[in-house]
Amino acid sequence: MEQSIDIMYDETEMAPARFIGFVGEHGRFDLAIITTNNFFGKKIVHCLQTGRSAILNAEEAEQADYIQTTFQVSEEEASELSLFLSANL
After folding, report:
1. For residue 25, which of 65, 79, 67 has the smallest C-alpha distance?
2. What's CA 54's distance to the chain center, in Å?
3. What pLDDT is stored for residue 41 in this prediction?
4. Closest Cα partner for 35 from 45, 47, 43, 23?
5. CA quadruple 19, 57, 54, 84: dihedral positive or negative?
C-alpha cells in the first residue's frame, strides 16, 4: 500500500538556544528555550526532564493554567514556571 506524504515545510536554520536550570520553592526546571524565525516570533520551550514542549510568547506564558496542562506540573510549579517564562520569553 503506497502512502502519500505532503511536506508542509522543510527549513534549516541556525537557531540560538538558551539552556537554563532553576529551582523554585515548588520544583526544579531544566529548560531549553529556542529562538527561531518560525512560529510568528514565539519561542520553543522544551522541558529537558519530561520531554514536553510548547511554542509560546510572553503573554501566553502568563497563563499558569495553560502551563500546568502543557507541561503536566502541579499548580504551584506552573505558577513558578509561568512567572519565569513570562519574564524570559
Report:
1. 79
2. 4
3. 92
4. 43
5. positive
Q: Using CA atoms, how far apart are residues 28 and 54, in angstroms rounded to an integer? A: 18
For strand 53-56 and strand 43-47, is the pairing parallel, antiparallel, or unpaired?
A: antiparallel
* CA separation for the pair 80, 30 (Å, rounded): 13
pLDDT digit string (tens) for 50-87? 999 999 999 999 999 999 999 999 999 999 999 999 99
What one-letter code names the amino acid at 49?
Answer: Q
Task: Name the DSSP letter for residue 33.
Answer: E
pLDDT digits (tens, 9 = 90+) for 11-31: 999 999 999 999 999 999 999
Domain ranges (residues) in the chain: 20-88
Cβ(70)–Cβ(46) below 8 Å: no
